[in-house]
Write a structure and sequence with these properties.
Layout (H helix, E strand, L loop, with lengths): L1 H38 L5 H29 L21
């Protein structure tokens, strides 16, 4: 019984330590990767890919803004289409 209590306390301590240290280690590793990423040349494929993703996000934002403006301007209902159907046209015998 005593061994179980000691084991549980040790496991609990490890879990608490891991919960405290993991976010700090993650932030440190991320900062290290960002530093290495900045030292890479501009034509480095992952760096070009990240630049492309940023451009796509900017374009998407711009497109959404344009669509929102268009829907705000178009408050009138759509007009009838300029073409006619067969029922509307009087059929002339040949």
């Amino acid at each position: 019984m005593r061994r179980i209590a000691i084991s549980a306390a040790a496991i609990g301590g490890v879990v608490v330590a891991a919960r405290v240290l993991v976010p700090k280690l993650h932030a440190r590793m991320l900062a290290t990767c960002e530093g290495m990423f900045e030292h890479m040349p501009e034509d480095f494929p992952p760096k070009r890919m990240m630049g492309g993703i940023e451009e796509i996000r900017a374009n998407t934002t711009r497109i959404l803004e344009l669509l929102e403006e268009r829907t705000q301007v178009e408050t009138k209902p759509q007009e009838e289409p300029p073409w006619t159907t067969a029922e509307e046209v009087e059929m002339v015998p040949a």
